[in-house]
Specification:
With 235 residues, this protein is an alpha/beta fold. It is built from seven helices and six strands. The chain has a single domain, classed as Undecaprenyl pyrophosphate synthetase (3-Layer(aba) Sandwich). It binds 3-methylbut-3-enyl trihydrogen diphosphate (2 copies) and magnesium ion.
């Protein structure tokens, strides 16, 4: 198990490859998403046990609405089931749930559950789990700019009050450290509109493993690779 001191404080994951995992087995894509949920549970638990303080999972992007309705509907039902089944374990394990993205566009049957889960885990202190839903990194930056503008309009802030630090405070991840390590499964070498502001100095780790095949041992491999990296931050 990796050394505590050199553990990343914040890990972000682009969980990709559910569809290909299913296709390889001749199964419908939704079965890949179901298998992906198991990986979510295992990786969340592993991060918590390893002492990772922040984990951010890309679960549904703003662009994912372009998929067939049946697939989107299945993903929303899985999300509901995930919260219903896991909430008690989050509380037991001290995991604070935080959903990031434009929640307003999610179906009526999930929104109250998200709110309830965030409230029920608000005091959990072992790890913060951000789940990105209807998330777009560009939308997040636009939303932050709007929040800042409304403060200016209300006379509470002036243009000179804006700097990197204060701008970060308007993002969905306000108050959290930036990800140190960004993992993407399924081999794609792209960011797909994820955490554009926050990953400016994240170490990138791309593995060919498809998300449903990503296990605790793969997470530890990624962390060990991260520990070997020399982070220079331009210096
Ligand atoms: C990632 O797997 C999960 C979501 C985007 C919801 P994909 O569904 O993108 O799987 P591939 O990339 O088609 O294999
Ligand atoms: C990114 O995966 C979004 C999530 C993992 C939720 P996609 O499969 O949607 O990204 P692209 O289409 O390969 O860029
Ligand atoms: Mg994909």
């Amino acid at each position: 198990m990796p050394d505590k001191e050199v553990l990343p404080l914040h890990i972000a994951v682009i969980m990709d490859g559910n569809g290909r995992w299913a296709k390889k087995r001749g199964l419908p894509r939704v079965m890949g998403h179901r298998a992906g949920m198991k990986a979510v549970k295992e990786i969340t638990k592993s991060c918590r046990d390893l002492g990772i303080k922040y984990l951010t999972l890309y679960a549904f992007s703003s662009e994912n609405w372009k998929r067939p309705k049946a697939e989107v509907d299945a993903l929303m039902r899985f999300l509901e089931e995930y919260i219903d089944k896991e909430l008690r374990s989050f509380i037991k394990n001290g995991i604070r749930l935080n959903f990031i993205g434009r929640m307003g566009a999610l179906p009526d049957f999930v929104r109250p559950k998200l709110k309830k889960a965030m409230e029920a885990t608000a005091d959990c202190g072992n790890m913060t789990l951000n789940v990105a839903l209807n998330y777009s990194g560009r939308d997040e930056i636009v939303d932050a700019a709007k929040k800042f503008a409304s403060q200016v309009k209300a006379g509470k802030l002036g243009a000179d009050d804006l700097d990197e630090g204060s701008f970060s405070g308007f993002l969905y991840t306000a108050g959290q450290p930036d990800p140190d390590l960004l993992i993407r499964t399924s081999g794609e070498m792209r960011i797909s509109n994820f955490l554009l502001w926050q990953i400016s100095y994240a170490e990138l780790y791309v593995t060919p493993k498809l998300w449903p095949d990503f296990r605790r041992g793969d997470l530890i491999d990624a962390i060990n690779e991260y520990r070997k990296r020399e982070r220079r931050f331009g210096a």
